[in-house]
DNA sequence: GTCCGACCGTA
DNA sequence: TTACGGTCGGACG
């Protein structure tokens, strides 16, 4: 090494943390391995190596080394036991990345330096002084103030994030003292992050003033008695020893024994294939491309190398010795092929000052975005391909976009694409660390006025045939994370355009995982809640009601404001919400139960199911006839014509005009005419109430099912495509709408006829597979009830067993009424039983119902324990959990209103049971398509519907025998390997040409 | 046109 | 006694 050489010393540990903070949190490889910091590190390093000449450094290095901390056990710990004592463990997802980053450094063909017992800063100091002595120039790539003491005329620092060189004047400007006095300054001010004590009450300003006056720390301490301010004089005298200790702690050593001599840190040429092999293994597609271009390699010809990953305590990064393993909540750790993660409790303890925890990060994000204004004037409309390409390139560069589509319909199966918007977050120098910009790309807007053909295309739009391939490439690019709100809609829409979106997040689903039970998860409420911003309402753009226009007729400028804002809001919500998943230990729920279900449901919706319109039409006629006959008879009995469908009019007839007794009132004071009231009257021998009940049944079936379903048959596919909502129940169940296929009648013979209209296509069968008693099995599992567990293990009738336990009646020859009561009690337990509710259900006295409950708890004390502890948890923490760690919040559980409180308690008891069952079938659904594919049955066995504990498939005739055992096995083993239940799950499956016979 | 309550279909 | 969505009537504007 000689004069004219230039040594770059990269502060690797500092780089890691900067990369981690600067990038979107939780960037992961497709197998779940977090690689965000690795990605940031590689990008920064590549930039440094290729662009050093163009940056403010202005030179190209001849020598370069990347320096890391070895561990936190250094000589400083011997000097001062509390050194860095209040630093917390690094974020969980950073742990496996420490090792990867060292491997990355070697892949870049760079020396990777660390020495036991010393910090990176000491190694840097030693090399810097050695190089300086040999006449070389030094650039320390870091912005850490601890390194500023090293700055001289020949040694500079370089802040790569801000592209700013730091020399002697910069240190003076920032700290008020020249670099050589930085040690004394830091000794006085201390450092809360590293737990360097310093002198209490002395900050950088005071320290600089004192140093200017007294020259250095020793002189100051000698002449401390001269200080005029009494308080300051006293603390300095009292803390003189602390200051001297602190000086030893902050002073960097320049005598670290080094394996590699400074002259050997020669910057070698890049080994292109070696680097590309590593980058490919990390799935950094855009950097791979840039590196391949730069070294003229064919990236396609190079295989990804095997990269060993150290996941847990074996990975050594700074301060791992203080890392505690995360506590396990319930169940065993989730292990599905790759990563190990653990559903765990929130770490409620306050983070020490200056440390960086996932919670701190989430909180800082929340604070930053709560008041970041929206500037609509910055939204841009893209009207040419070149600009679109530029934005897509930027998206690849930043790796994450907010995304939204604009269409002609709320129904994703019918909607046509009108345009799309995207938002990009640049890591700009804004207070939030990000700068978000957004665009709208109109594709199918029409002119409102219209020519003879009824409205032509608006001008200056990119042609669909040009835009679609680009959009497809972007949405299918694994290296770009697409963030959307309610992505299932956009996913399904785009799938119909031949695009299968990959690598995505859904802010609605993240909110649902984090805050189920605390409100809606739509974009507008989330925006108001987290961004303090009310987005432009759809109806303000497209109108509402009769004056509503289709989005393709909306003026493009107005559309840009609306659409770009949606992408902007979505990306901001992601910035706020995504870090909370890690902070609140809900990443596993989101990644295993929520996000992967989205494409599964989209595929089910896209497939739809055939309904036979002729059957429905025939049924409709029969129902109309039956209802008409009953109407005549009802008018006869009532002595007048009235609207039977009006509970108000009916109540007046029954309890007013006819003066019947036994009526009850609804909460609004109206006479109740519910089925149970009418049944009671019918049981007393009255004809009219019976006929009304029958009439209601027929008209219900007709209006809700036989008349409504044909309207949902898709004009092209000729099938019915329901829409599943992933985020509208509190417990984790799905809901189905337009049409709701989760409430197709089954209990009565009349109702079941509707199921015969749900048919398989010719050459196929429908298979219905349903869990037997899944909620009671979950209850037996969570409450650990020996009798229930045994009964399920033995496969005996659970309600009969309950009755036998409670009433001492043998199962053999048990009267059906006894079993019926036990069954009602079992359901009552699941629903968070009350004597009032059970009495209502069984039409018995409340005291008798109370006796039943008492007896039940005597026979099954574990159930009462479970119910009590669940209520207690809900009260203490405000939420309860399912067996897979899904959290359901009950913010009103401590209401002062007793009926509100009681309601919340019952719901809190029910939620873990209903929600765990929902988690189980979700897992089955997620595993189903891969399991069928493995058996060679892809698209030959197609999952169509889910009805809470039942899955319906459409299967080619010859595959039925092969498919059935696979379906049953996936469902029965759905909890494995994450969790083995104490009771077996049982699934019944049947095949037939219609849903009624298959069920 | 829009909202809400009553009612009833499912698990 | 839990969790949903759809239809209707009726009141509001």
Automatic annotation (TrEMBL):
UniProt EC number: 2.7.7.7
Gene3D superfamilies, A to Z: 3.30.70.370, 5' to 3' exonuclease, C-terminal subdomain, 5'-nuclease, Ribonuclease H-like superfamily/Ribonuclease H, Taq DNA Polymerase, Chain T, domain 4
5'-3' exonuclease domain: residues covered: 5-268
Presence of keyword Endoplasmic reticulum: no
Catalytic activity field: DNA(n) + a 2'-deoxyribonucleoside 5'-triphosphate = DNA(n+1) + diphosphate
Domain of life assignment: Bacteria
Alphabetic keyword roster: DNA damage, DNA repair, DNA replication, DNA-binding, DNA-directed DNA polymerase, Exonuclease, Hydrolase, Nuclease, Nucleotidyltransferase, Transferase
CDD domains xref list: DNA_pol_A_pol_I_C, DNA_polA_I_Ecoli_like_exo, H3TH_53EXO, PIN_53EXO
GO biological process terms, semicolon-separated: DNA-templated DNA replication; double-strand break repair
All residue ranges annotated as the DNA-directed DNA polymerase family A palm domain in the record: 751-959
Occurrences of domain Exonuclease (ranges): 399-583
Sequence ranges assigned to domain 3'-5' exonuclease in this UniProt record: 379-582
InterPro entries from the UniProt entry: 3'-5'_exonuclease_dom, 5-3_exonucl_a-hlix_arch_N, 5-3_exonuclease, 5-3_exonuclease_C_sf, DNA-dir_DNA_pol_A_CS, DNA-dir_DNA_pol_A_palm_dom, DNA/RNA_pol_sf, DNA_polI_H3TH
A GO molecular-function annotation: DNA-directed DNA polymerase activity
Keyword DNA repair: yes
PANTHER family: DNA POLYMERASE I, DNA POLYMERASE NU
Assembly: Single-chain monomer with multiple functions.
Job description of the protein: In addition to polymerase activity, this DNA polymerase exhibits 3'-5' and 5'-3' exonuclease activity.
NCBIfam families, sorted: pola, PRK05755.1
Family membership: Belongs to the DNA polymerase type-A family.
Protein name stated in the entry: DNA polymerase I
Annotated gene: polA
């Amino acid at each position: 090494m000689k004069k004219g050489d230039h040594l770059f010393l990269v502060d690797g540990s500092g780089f890691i943390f900067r990369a981690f903070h600067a990038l979107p949190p939780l960037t992961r490889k497709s197998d779940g391995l977090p690689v965000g910091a690795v990605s940031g590190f590689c990008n920064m390093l590549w930039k440094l190596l290729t662009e050093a000449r163009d940056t403010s450094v202005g030179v190209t290095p001849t020598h370069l080394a990347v320096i890391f901390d070895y561990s936190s056990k250094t000589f400083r710990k011997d000097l001062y036991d509390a050194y860095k004592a209040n630093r917390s463990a690094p974020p969980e997802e950073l742990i496996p990345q420490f090792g990867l980053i060292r491997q990355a450094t070697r892949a870049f063909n760079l020396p990777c330096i660390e020495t036991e017992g010393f910090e990176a800063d000491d190694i840097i100091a030693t090399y810097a002084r050695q190089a300086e002595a040999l006449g070389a120039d030094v650039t320390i790539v870091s912005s850490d103030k601890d390194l500023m003491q090293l700055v001289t005329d020949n040694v500079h620092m370089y802040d790569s994030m801000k592209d700013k060189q730091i020399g002697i004047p910069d240190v003076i400007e920032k700290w008020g003292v020249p670099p050589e006095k930085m040690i004394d300054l830091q000794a006085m001010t201390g450092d809360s992050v590293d737990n360097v004590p310093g002198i209490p009450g002395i900050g950088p300003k005071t320290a600089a003033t004192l140093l200017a006056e007294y020259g250095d720390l020793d002189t100051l301490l000698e002449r401390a008695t001269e200080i005029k301010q009494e308080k300051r004089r006293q603390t300095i005298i009292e803390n003189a020893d602390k200051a001297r200790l602190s000086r030893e702690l902050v002073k960097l050593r320049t005598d670290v024994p080094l394996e590699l001599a400074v002259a050997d840190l020669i910057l070698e040429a890049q080994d292109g294939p070696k680097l590309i092999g590593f980058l490919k293994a990390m799935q950094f597609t855009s950097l791979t491309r840039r590196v391949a271009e730069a070294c003229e390699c064919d990236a396609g010809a190079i295989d990804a190398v095997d990269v060993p990953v150290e996941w847990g305590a074996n990975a050594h990064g700074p301060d791992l010795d203080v890392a505690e393993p995360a506590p396990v909540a319930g169940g065993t750790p989730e292990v599905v092929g790759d990563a190990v993660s653990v559903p765990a409790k929130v770490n409620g303890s306050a983070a020490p000052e200056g440390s960086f925890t996932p919670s701190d990060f989430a909180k800082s994000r929340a604070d930053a975005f709560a008041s970041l204004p929206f500037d609509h004037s910055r939204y841009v409309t893209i009207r040419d391909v070149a600009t679109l390409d530029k934005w897509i390139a930027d998206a690849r560069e930043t790796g994450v976009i907010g995304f939204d589509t604009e269409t002609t319909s709320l129904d994703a199966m019918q909607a046509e694409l009108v345009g799309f918007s995207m938002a990009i977050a640049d890591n700009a120098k804004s207070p939030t660390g990000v700068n978000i910009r957004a665009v709208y790309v109109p594709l199918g807007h029409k002119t409102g006025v219209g020519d003879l053909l009824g409205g032509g295309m608006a001008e200056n739009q990119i042609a669909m045939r040009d835009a679609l391939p680009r959009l497809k490439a972007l949405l299918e690019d694994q290296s770009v994370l697409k963030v959307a709100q309610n992505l299932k809609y956009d996913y399904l829409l785009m799938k119909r355009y031949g695009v299968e979106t990959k690598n995505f997040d859904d802010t609605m689903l993240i909110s649902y995982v984090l805050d189920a039970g605390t409100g809606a998860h739509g974009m507008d409420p989330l925006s108001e809640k987290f961004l303090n911003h009310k987005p432009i309402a759809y109806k303000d753009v497209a109108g509402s009601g009769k004056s509503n226009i289709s989005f393709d007729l909306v003026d493009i400028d107005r559309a840009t404001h609306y659409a770009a804002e949606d992408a902007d809001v979505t990306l901001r919500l992601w910035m706020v919400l995504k870090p909370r998943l890690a902070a609140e230990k809900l990443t596993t729920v989101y990644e295993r139960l929520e996000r992967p279900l989205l494409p599964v449901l989209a595929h089910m919706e896209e497939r739809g199911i055939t309904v036979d319109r002729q059957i429905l039409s025939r049924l409709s006629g029969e129902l109309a006839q039956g209802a008409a006959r009953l109407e005549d008879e009802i008018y006869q009995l009532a002595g007048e014509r009235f609207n039977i469908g009006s509970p108000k009019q009916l109540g007046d007839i029954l309890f007013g005009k006819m003066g019947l007794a036994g009526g009850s009132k609804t909460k609004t004071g109206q006479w109740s005419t519910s089925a149970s009231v009418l049944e009671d009257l019918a049981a007393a021998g009255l004809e009219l109430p019976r006929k009304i009940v029958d009439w209601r049944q027929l008209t219900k079936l007709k209006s809700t099912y036989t008349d409504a379903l044909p309207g949902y048959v898709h004009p092209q596919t000729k099938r019915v495509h329901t829409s599943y909502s992933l985020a509208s129940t509190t417990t984790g169940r799905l809901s189905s709408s337009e049409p709701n296929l989760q409430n197709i009648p089954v209990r009565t013979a009349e109702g079941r006829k509707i199921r015969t209209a749900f048919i398989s296509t010719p050459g196929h069968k429908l298979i219905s597979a349903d869990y037997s008693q899944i909620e009671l099995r979950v209850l037996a599992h969570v409450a650990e009830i020996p009798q229930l567990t045994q009964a399920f293990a033995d496969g005996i009738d659970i309600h009969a067993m309950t009755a036998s336990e409670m009433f001492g009646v043998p199962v053999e020859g048990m009267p059906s009424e006894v079993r019926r009561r036990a069954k009602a009690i079992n359901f009552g337990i699941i629903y968070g039983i009350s004597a009032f509710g059970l009495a209502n259900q069984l039409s018995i006295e409340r005291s008798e119902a109370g006796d039943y409950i008492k007896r039940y708890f005597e026979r099954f004390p574990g159930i009462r324990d479970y119910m009590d502890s669940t209520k207690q948890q809900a009260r203490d923490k405000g939420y309860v959990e399912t067996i897979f760690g899904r959290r359901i919040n009950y913010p009103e559980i401590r209401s002062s209103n007793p009926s509100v409180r009681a309601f919340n308690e019952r719901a809190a008891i029910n939620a873990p049971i209903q929600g765990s069952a929902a988690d189980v079938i979700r897992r089955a659904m997620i595993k189903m398509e891969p399991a069928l594919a493995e058996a060679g049955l892809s698209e030959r066995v197609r999952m169509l519907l889910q009805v809470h504990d039942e899955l319906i498939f459409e299967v080619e005739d010859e595959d039925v025998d092969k498919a059935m055992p696979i379906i049953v096995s996936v469902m029965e083993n759905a909890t494995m390997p994450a969790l083995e239940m104490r009771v077996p799950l049982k699934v019944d499956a049947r095949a037939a040409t219609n849903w009624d016979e298959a069920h």
